[in-house]
Amino acid sequence: MARPLRIQYPNAWYHVTCRGNARSPIFRGDSDRYKFLALLEESSLNFNVEVHCYCLMNNHFHLLVKTPLANLDRFMHRFNTAYIVFFNWYHKRCGHLYQGRYKAILVEETNHLLELTRYIHLNPIRIKSRTKISLQEKVNFLKTYRWSSYQSYAYSRINRDTFLRQDTILSMIGGKAADIKVRKRRYRDFVLRGLEKDIRTPHADKKANSILGSEDFINWVYSSFSHKFSGENEYSKISELSPSLSIKAIIDVVSSGFKIQPDALKKKYMRTGGGREAAIEFACRYLRGRQSLSEIGKLFNLSAAGVILSRDRLKNKLAENSALRHKFERIEKKIISMLK
């Protein structure tokens, strides 16, 4: 039997699931779940993977992620390994925790994503013991279920998970971007409508057991990747298109965008109007799959801790300075275009 399909390219979206071995629990208590989310945050930062949705169940988990660096395999290997090591140590056990490799469905960036988040967020009330409870009980249960991203999406006062990206999904629900309360209320109504009637699972439309999207998207995937391999199964051997970008390319694009000399971005105390921090951030985002934080730090005469502090400073500057944020976004679009 062919191994599960692994198509990887910059900014691809995936619905990722992983089940416990022999359907055994992968969480024995809340301490496990807290550690799982902490490792998810750490791994998503280290590999520049965007986490847009998640749900933790007793014996499996769901993630909706976007991979700017085409590095799903590396991210999931590191993340799953880290949690398995913790779980086995904490519970004084050994052996497999998960049932084989994780499953990943490639998803087109359309309303399929919106439907998928509803499917993921409704998982806690789909288990047999909760299918017979009343509608209001289901609504209340979802509202209080701690171990999914639903609370952060549906209620404006709740945003515990700092690593969670909500903007893309909430933009699909309509309403003005500035009115986050309206968008969250609309999203909550959208999810709860799934309780009132049987919603067709989005996975019913998937192709080759691993792709969810329109016929045009399926054709694009096949035409873009199948030429690299040959075999009887036209989908089973499709593989990846990895991004390739040098630090010089990043420095050149950033220096051009900020209208400063490239060497200035590497000097520790040079005033660059946010350009140095932007260059460090882009290096982390688009070189991180191949270089550690320490290696990236050396490129800018910083330690790994200095890289982290620089990223924190930039995050604050982007939140406070709209002109800098727009410039940063324009430069990132140029960098992404170089990856394609």
Structural class: alpha+beta
Mean pLDDT level: 84
Q: In CATH's first tier, which class of the largest domain applies?
A: Alpha Beta
| SSE pattern | EHEEHEHHHHHEHHHHHH
Outline type: globular
The biggest beta sheet is recorded as:
5 strands, mixed
Whole-number tally of structural domains: 2
In spatial order, strands of the major sheet run 2-3-1-4-5
Would you report the number of β strands?
A: 5
Uncertain stretches of 5 or more adjacent residues: 227-243
Give the full name of the CATH homologous superfamily of the largest domain. Transposase IS200-like
The name of the CATH architecture of the largest domain is 2-Layer Sandwich
CA-atom Rg in angstroms: 21 Å
- Taken as a percent bin, the fraction of beta residues is 5-15%
Distance between the termini: 32 Å
CATH fold-level topology of the largest domain: Alpha-Beta Plaits
Question: Can you describe this structure?
Answer:
The chain is an alpha+beta fold and 340 residues long. The chain folds into two domains: 12-196, 2-Layer Sandwich (Alpha-Beta Plaits); 247-339, Orthogonal Bundle (Chromosomal Replication Initiator Protein Dnaa, Chain: A), CATH 1.10.1750.10. Helices cover 48% and strands 9% of the residues. It is built from 13 helices and five strands. The chain has helices at residues 30-46, 72-90, 111-121, 135-144, 150-154, 167-171, 180-196, 215-225, 247-258, 275-287, 293-299, 304-320, 322-339, and strands at 12-19, 50-56, 60-67, 103-107, 211-212. A five-stranded mixed sheet has the order 2-3-1-4-5, with helices on both faces. Strand 2 (50-56) and strand 3 form a beta hairpin. The radius of gyration is 21 Å and the shape is globular. It starts with 11 loop residues before the first strand and ends with a helix. Residues 227-243 have low confidence and may be disordered.
